[in-house]
Amino acid sequence: MVTTNKVNVEEQAKLAKKAAKTLSLLTTEEKNEALLTLADTIDNEYETILIANEKDLENGRQQGHDAAFIDRLTLTKERIEEFAQGLRQVAELDDPTGIINSDWVLDNGLKVQQITVPLGVIGMIYEARPNVTVDATGLALKSGNAIVLKGGSSAIISNKTIVEVIHRGLEQTKIPKEAVQFIASTDREATQQLFTMKEHIDVLIPRGGGSLIKAVVNNATVPVLETGVGNCHLYIDAEADVKKALAILVNAKTDRPAVCNALETAIIHQDWLSANKDALIETLRAHDIHVHGDSTIMKLIPGAVPASEDDWANEYLSKDIAIKTVTNLTEATQHIEDYGTKHSEAIITENQETADKFMKLVDAAALYHNASTRFTDGGALGFGAEIGISTQKLHARGPMGLPALTTIKYLMHGDGQIR
Amino acid sequence: MVTTNKVNVEEQAKLAKKAAKTLSLLTTEEKNEALLTLADTIDNEYETILIANEKDLENGRQQGHDAAFIDRLTLTKERIEEFAQGLRQVAELDDPTGIINSDWVLDNGLKVQQITVPLGVIGMIYEARPNVTVDATGLALKSGNAIVLKGGSSAIISNKTIVEVIHRGLEQTKIPKEAVQFIASTDREATQQLFTMKEHIDVLIPRGGGSLIKAVVNNATVPVLETGVGNCHLYIDAEADVKKALAILVNAKTDRPAVCNALETAIIHQDWLSANKDALIETLRAHDIHVHGDSTIMKLIPGAVPASEDDWANEYLSKDIAIKTVTNLTEATQHIEDYGTKHSEAIITENQETADKFMKLVDAAALYHNASTRFTDGGALGFGAEIGISTQKLHARGPMGLPALTTIKYLMHGDGQIR
């Protein structure tokens, strides 16, 4: 294990802040050229990254991590090429800064512009996957921001090496390499220092499990863009089409159970359940979905186990599902309000009025009528790139593309106006 | 003194959350009618409010508050009529909710809409002025939000009575009166409860002095819209026009010294200072401006006192000014970065290139070239109404009108799309 606890987090953040100023003066072309250079450097140095990754993998195996964990940590030549390709794609996206959202002239002649500008310094706190190191760096630089990266300890050698490669790449560009800072420490204190560094860090973005996100939200005085936890619901209304309902249930639950837009709880109207019990049971069995149910479900579905309070609140991230029965829409929306995480919620119904009411009453980033919750994703929605999925309401909600990494300035040009 | 410490803050926040749901289903017309009814009710019941205000004033005098404090607290028939008129103006503004920002169709036929919706429940924590009670209520209701009000203890009887009047008005409308909650307690604990009530309150907006805002930012886990502290700078460049520079200095410093967009520090290029020393001295004397200066200023300006570290950092909110001399733009922007609060910063220069560089390098909500910082104000910029001036970068920056009280939802309409 590498533990370099003597990193000076504040010093790194200060360097990032200074680099952000230089970065904010670069043109779109200069930023794009830098991203392309970075992509080439990563392609050229893939072997260096693979060697570092092998050390992380060895540590991971020694610590007895499971196959899924090791898989997420594993880099290959192809995966590294995808990192580089991702940077080239970001270079092709529109620059989100320097856009004049609106401009007007006051009666006294003062010219007012509202213009988009970089946020400044982004603090990224994330867990195992090393791809975040490259993806987040690319999005930050494209939007004119410096970035301070604090990755998980299990990938620390890979991440540190990737950032060293990035630095070698940046040395050939107009972006100062200090714009990308990596906190090379496994010390929790290093992370906590980022929480309160308001002077040097403009926003913290945590990406990872619920406990990581909670720790950041509860302890940070730096503004946070909260991402990711998705306790998503599917409400099957009395007037739901059975084919759509079952196909969407299976897709949302089993396509990728471990991601945040996967389904965790189905809420089923009792009339629909009575009419479609056998089809539901057969579908669940065919797809190996393990049911945690309320008392009605326990009586109807063979093999179901009783759902506890925890079942309604947790993300399974597996092929488990909680199922609750209700007698009307209000019970359904109330359950979502009580247990939902404001991420993605779906209703299956042929009644447009019921669908509209559901969409008005339920408070979430993404609301679906007769479609799978799996579409809550920057890629699927055509955003080009995604820094995360916001479950908060301020600044950015739902999938966040490059514009989420900008703020605005009002620029006023006058010739002596006073009030 | 009224101290009703047994208020149940959580219960009130829950009621607000419930009322927010009803409110979110109302039409623009229903909300506007309610605001007009509220305005009439306030006009009709002005005497009730005046009687309550007299009690606050008596308490204030007994506690030895100064004339300025008493003035801010004092209501008159005219001021109350202005409250009502303010509500009528808000009724005339465009509804910021229900606006489809963008919509598109995915290749699979899934229809995607990004639409503006109310935030939900706004927690407003504010100091003496009772007008905030009415202004914030009007803006919250117009944007479809419920509001929980926690005013300062010195105005508690006035505020409580105003909310009672608002409740009597709302009873005649489609807006549930529970949408406006007043925490009738002078207990600090009641305020602190609001800080962490994430389940029931969607955003906290503190309005008042620096210490109030700091307490909210440092202790709240509910997202905060940070408002108001303005340590504003005026940089007089070597190439500044002397008439513009002096007129703007006087206006920004003396027009209303106690507001957040007033000038606190002038940064003067030494070449300009050498050339225009006499005019500057004469202007400062004529307008009774008290100078705290660096060593250069101390030698030049009669009556100046030495500026300490505190002078550079604090808002005077009086006719005091700190003056620093510099030899170039970088020194000026560095000083602003070290001591500014990212509110409003101005440069006076006839050199457009210098002005543009200043505007790029300085990180603040509003940047002025040859104009007074006093224009950072929703009213002055034509926003129609203002809930506060944001000094943060996320969600809203600068003067915040009705759109700052909204968030977005993605609505997806499909016919069975899966991924």
TrEMBL record, chains A, B:
Molecular function GO terms recorded: glutamate-5-semialdehyde dehydrogenase activity; NADP binding
Occurrences of domain Aldehyde dehydrogenase (ranges): 5-287
Pathway involvement of the protein, from the record: Amino-acid biosynthesis; L-proline biosynthesis; L-glutamate 5-semialdehyde from L-glutamate: step 2/2
InterPro entries: Ald_DH/histidinol_DH (IPR016161), Ald_DH_C (IPR016163), Ald_DH_N (IPR016162), Aldehyde_DH_dom (IPR015590), G-glutamylP_reductase_CS (IPR020593), Glu-5-SA_DH (IPR012134), GPR_dom (IPR000965)
Gene Ontology CC terms, in alphabetical order: cytoplasm
Reaction catalysis annotation: L-glutamate 5-semialdehyde + phosphate + NADP(+) = L-glutamyl 5-phosphate + NADPH + H(+)
Entry's localization field: Cytoplasm
Enzyme class: oxidoreductase
Domain of life of the organism encoding this protein: Bacteria
Main subcellular location of this protein, as a coarse class: cytoplasm
Single GO BP term: L-proline biosynthetic process
Keyword Nucleotide-binding tagged: no
Keywords of the record: Amino-acid biosynthesis, Cytoplasm, NADP, Oxidoreductase, Proline biosynthesis
EC number: 1.2.1.41
NCBIfam families, A to Z: PRK00197.1, proA
Function: Catalyzes the NADPH-dependent reduction of L-glutamate 5-phosphate into L-glutamate 5-semialdehyde and phosphate. The product spontaneously undergoes cyclization to form 1-pyrroline-5-carboxylate.
Family: Belongs to the gamma-glutamyl phosphate reductase family.
Descriptive protein name: Gamma-glutamyl phosphate reductase
The organism's taxonomic lineage, starting at the top: Bacteria, Bacillati, Bacillota, Bacilli, Bacillales
